[in-house]
Specification:
A hairpin with a 2-residue loop joins strand 3 (69-74) and strand 4 (77-84). The strands form two sheets. Strands 1-2-7-6 form a four-stranded antiparallel β-sheet, with no helix packed on it. Strands 3-4-5 form a three-stranded antiparallel β-sheet, with no helix packed on it. It is of the alpha+beta class and 149 residues long. Helices cover 14% and strands 31% of the residues. It folds into two domains: 1-36; 39-86 and 97-136, Immunoglobulin-like. This is Molecular chaperone. InterPro entries: A-crystallin/Hsp20_dom, HSP20-like_chaperone, Small_HSP. It comes from Dethiosulfatarculus sandiegensis.
Length: 149
C-alpha cells in the first residue's frame, strides 16, 4: 500500500535544492554545472560610460588578440564577440587545476543615444578593449512662424 507524504516535504526538497545550487554557485561561479565535463564559456567584464559627447565601452579581454574579436554596431545594438581558446598542456604530476575559463562569448548592449557611425574607434591595450562611440549631434529645434491670414 502507498504511504501518504505530506505536501510540505516536497517544498523542503525544493528549498534544499536551491540552497545547494547557491552553494555550488558560490564555490564554482554562477551558472557552473557540477561535474558535468561541459566546457564553460565566460563573459568578459564590461564598463559602459557616458562621457557627454561620446559613449565609452571598455571590456576586459586578457589573452585575446584584436583579430580574435568581432565588434559590430547593428542599429542601436553594440555587440562584442569572440572566443578564448584553451591552451593545451600536458601534466604528469598526478594532479591538475584549471581555473581559467575558455569558450565563445557574446555581449550586446542597446545604446541610449544615436552615435556617429563615421567616427567609431576601437583600441586594444594590455587586455583591455576600449570602444569610443561619438554621439551624433542633436538637431536644434527650429521655430516656425505662424502667419495670420
Amino acid at each position: 500500500m502507498f504511504e501518504l507524504i505530506p505536501a510540505n516535504s516536497f517544498r523542503n526538497l525544493g528549498s534544499l535544492r536551491r540552497e545547494m545550487d547557491g552553494l555550488w554557485d558560490t564555490l564554482m561561479g554562477p551558472g557552473s554545472l557540477p561535474f558535468s565535463g561541459v566546457k564553460e564559456s565566460f563573459s568578459p567584464l564590461v564598463n559602459l560610460a557616458d562621457k557627454g559627447d561620446c559613449l565609452e565601452v571598455t571590456a576586459e579581454l586578457p589573452g585575446l588578440k584584436p583579430e580574435e574579436l568581432d565588434i559590430s554596431l547593428n542599429g542601436d545594438v553594440l555587440t562584442i564577440k569572440g572566443e578564448k581558446k584553451e591552451e593545451l598542456e600536458e601534466d604528469h604530476k598526478g594532479y591538475h587545476l584549471i581555473e581559467r575559463r575558455y569558450g565563445e562569448f557574446s555581449r550586446s548592449f542597446r545604446l541610449p543615444d544615436e552615435v556617429d557611425r563615421e567616427s567609431l574607434k576601437a583600441t586594444h591595450k594590455n587586455g583591455i578593449v576600449k570602444i569610443v562611440l561619438p554621439k551624433k549631434a542633436k538637431e536644434s529645434s527650429t521655430a516656425i512662424e505662424i502667419e495670420v491670414e
